[in-house]
Amino acid sequence: FRPGTGEDRCVLDSITSLQHGADLLWIETEKPHIEQIAKMVDRIRKVVPNAKLAYNNSPSFNWTINFRQQVYDAWKEAGKDVSKYSRADLMKPEYDDTPLGKEADERIRTFQADAAKRAGIFHHLITLPTYHTAALSTDNLAREYFGEQG
Protein backbone atom coordinates (compact mmCIF):
# COMPACT_ATOMS: atom_id res chain seq x y z
CA PHE A 1 0.00 0.00 0.00
CA ARG A 2 1.04 3.56 -0.51
CA PRO A 3 1.94 5.27 2.78
CA GLY A 4 -1.15 6.42 4.64
CA THR A 5 -3.60 4.28 2.64
CA GLY A 6 -3.58 1.06 4.67
CA GLU A 7 -6.82 1.63 6.58
CA ASP A 8 -8.72 2.85 3.52
CA ARG A 9 -7.50 -0.15 1.54
CA CYS A 10 -8.47 -2.52 4.36
CA VAL A 11 -11.98 -1.02 4.48
CA LEU A 12 -12.39 -1.16 0.68
CA ASP A 13 -11.09 -4.74 0.44
CA SER A 14 -13.31 -5.82 3.33
CA ILE A 15 -16.46 -4.32 1.80
CA THR A 16 -15.64 -5.76 -1.62
CA SER A 17 -15.00 -9.22 -0.14
CA LEU A 18 -18.24 -9.19 1.84
CA GLN A 19 -20.22 -8.05 -1.20
CA HIS A 20 -18.77 -10.96 -3.17
CA GLY A 21 -19.52 -13.78 -0.75
CA ALA A 22 -17.16 -13.59 2.22
CA ASP A 23 -18.94 -14.16 5.51
CA LEU A 24 -16.14 -13.25 7.93
CA LEU A 25 -13.39 -10.60 7.87
CA TRP A 26 -9.91 -11.00 9.27
CA ILE A 27 -8.40 -7.62 10.03
CA GLU A 28 -4.91 -6.99 11.32
CA THR A 29 -3.47 -3.70 12.48
CA GLU A 30 0.07 -2.58 13.22
CA LYS A 31 -0.76 -2.23 16.90
CA PRO A 32 -3.54 -3.41 19.24
CA HIS A 33 -5.66 -0.24 19.33
CA ILE A 34 -9.40 -0.70 19.86
CA GLU A 35 -10.45 2.70 18.49
CA GLN A 36 -8.42 2.18 15.31
CA ILE A 37 -10.06 -1.20 14.77
CA ALA A 38 -13.52 0.13 15.66
CA LYS A 39 -13.28 3.05 13.23
CA MET A 40 -12.48 0.67 10.37
CA VAL A 41 -15.29 -1.70 11.34
CA ASP A 42 -17.73 1.22 11.69
CA ARG A 43 -16.91 2.28 8.12
CA ILE A 44 -17.36 -1.28 6.85
CA ARG A 45 -20.69 -1.67 8.66
CA LYS A 46 -22.06 1.50 7.08
CA VAL A 47 -22.08 -0.50 3.84
CA VAL A 48 -22.40 -4.07 5.19
CA PRO A 49 -24.22 -3.82 8.55
CA ASN A 50 -23.90 -7.50 9.50
CA ALA A 51 -20.12 -7.76 8.91
CA LYS A 52 -18.38 -10.16 11.30
CA LEU A 53 -14.76 -9.61 12.27
CA ALA A 54 -11.96 -11.92 13.32
CA TYR A 55 -8.91 -10.18 14.78
CA ASN A 56 -5.41 -11.55 15.27
CA ASN A 57 -4.08 -10.82 18.78
CA SER A 58 -0.55 -10.98 17.47
CA PRO A 59 2.24 -11.98 19.83
CA SER A 60 4.41 -9.87 17.52
CA PHE A 61 2.93 -6.74 19.09
CA ASN A 62 4.80 -5.33 22.02
CA TRP A 63 1.57 -5.20 24.00
CA THR A 64 3.13 -3.53 27.05
CA ILE A 65 4.66 -0.55 25.25
CA ASN A 66 1.64 -0.15 22.96
CA PHE A 67 -0.80 0.08 25.84
CA ARG A 68 1.48 2.21 28.00
CA GLN A 69 1.75 4.67 25.11
CA GLN A 70 -2.02 4.62 24.62
CA VAL A 71 -2.58 5.38 28.30
CA TYR A 72 0.07 8.11 28.25
CA ASP A 73 -1.50 9.71 25.16
CA ALA A 74 -5.03 9.50 26.59
CA TRP A 75 -3.93 11.01 29.90
CA LYS A 76 -2.03 13.81 28.15
CA GLU A 77 -5.02 14.58 25.90
CA ALA A 78 -7.29 14.65 28.96
CA GLY A 79 -4.98 17.16 30.66
CA LYS A 80 -3.70 14.72 33.25
CA ASP A 81 -0.19 15.34 34.58
CA VAL A 82 2.21 12.97 32.81
CA SER A 83 5.39 14.85 33.79
CA LYS A 84 6.79 11.92 35.78
CA TYR A 85 6.66 9.68 32.69
CA SER A 86 8.88 9.71 29.62
CA ARG A 87 6.89 8.43 26.62
CA ALA A 88 10.13 7.23 25.00
CA ASP A 89 11.05 5.16 28.08
CA LEU A 90 7.70 3.63 29.04
CA MET A 91 9.07 0.10 28.65
CA LYS A 92 11.41 0.57 31.62
CA PRO A 93 10.67 -1.67 34.63
CA GLU A 94 10.34 1.30 36.98
CA TYR A 95 6.99 2.03 35.32
CA ASP A 96 5.59 -1.44 36.11
CA ASP A 97 3.95 -0.52 39.42
CA THR A 98 2.95 3.03 38.53
CA PRO A 99 -0.65 4.07 37.94
CA LEU A 100 0.14 4.29 34.20
CA GLY A 101 1.66 0.80 34.15
CA LYS A 102 -1.27 -0.64 36.08
CA GLU A 103 -3.86 0.98 33.80
CA ALA A 104 -2.01 -0.32 30.74
CA ASP A 105 -1.95 -3.83 32.24
CA GLU A 106 -5.69 -3.62 32.90
CA ARG A 107 -6.34 -2.55 29.30
CA ILE A 108 -4.32 -5.54 28.09
CA ARG A 109 -6.27 -7.84 30.41
CA THR A 110 -9.63 -6.59 29.11
CA PHE A 111 -8.61 -6.09 25.47
CA GLN A 112 -10.60 -8.98 24.03
CA ALA A 113 -13.83 -8.14 25.87
CA ASP A 114 -13.44 -4.40 25.22
CA ALA A 115 -12.66 -4.97 21.53
CA ALA A 116 -15.68 -7.25 21.18
CA LYS A 117 -17.91 -4.56 22.72
CA ARG A 118 -16.53 -1.51 20.93
CA ALA A 119 -15.33 -2.94 17.61
CA GLY A 120 -17.68 -5.90 17.35
CA ILE A 121 -14.92 -8.46 17.09
CA PHE A 122 -16.64 -11.80 16.63
CA HIS A 123 -13.61 -14.07 17.05
CA HIS A 124 -10.14 -13.46 18.50
CA LEU A 125 -7.23 -15.39 17.03
CA ILE A 126 -3.67 -15.91 18.19
CA THR A 127 -2.20 -17.40 15.03
CA LEU A 128 1.55 -17.53 15.61
CA PRO A 129 1.52 -20.13 18.42
CA THR A 130 -1.02 -22.18 16.45
CA TYR A 131 1.36 -22.22 13.51
CA HIS A 132 4.24 -23.39 15.70
CA THR A 133 2.24 -26.11 17.47
CA ALA A 134 0.89 -27.38 14.13
CA ALA A 135 4.43 -27.50 12.73
CA LEU A 136 5.70 -29.34 15.81
CA SER A 137 2.85 -31.87 15.66
CA THR A 138 3.49 -32.50 11.97
CA ASP A 139 7.21 -32.92 12.60
CA ASN A 140 6.57 -35.36 15.46
CA LEU A 141 4.10 -37.36 13.36
CA ALA A 142 6.53 -37.58 10.44
CA ARG A 143 9.43 -38.63 12.68
CA GLU A 144 7.40 -41.32 14.42
CA TYR A 145 5.66 -42.50 11.24
CA PHE A 146 8.92 -43.11 9.45
CA GLY A 147 10.99 -43.90 12.54
CA GLU A 148 11.14 -46.87 14.88
CA GLN A 149 7.50 -46.50 15.94
CA GLY A 150 6.19 -46.37 12.31
Quick structural overview:
By secondary structure, the chain is mainly alpha-helical. It has helices at 6-19, 34-47, 63-77, 99-109, 111-119, 127-146; strands spanning 25-27, 53-56, 121-125.
Can you walk me through this structure?
There is one protein chain. The protein is mainly alpha-helical. It has one domain (6-128). 55% of the residues lie in helices and 8% in strands. The chain has helices at residues 6-19, 34-47, 63-77, 99-109, 111-119, 127-146, and strands at residues 25-27, 53-56, 121-125. The relative contact order is 0.14. The mean pLDDT is 89.
Total helical elements: 6
Strand order of the largest sheet: 1-2-3
Name the poorly predicted regions: none
**Strand coverage percent:** 5-15%
Would you report the number of β strands?
Answer: 3
Mean pLDDT, all residues: 89
Q: Would you list the SSEs in sequence order as H and E? A: HEHEHHHEH
Q: Looking at the structure, what is the overall shape?
A: flat
The domain count comes to: 1
Helix content: 55-70%
Main sheet makeup:
3 strands, parallel
The rounded Rg comes to: 20 Å
First-last Cα distance: 48 Å
Q: Structural class, from helix and strand content? A: mainly alpha
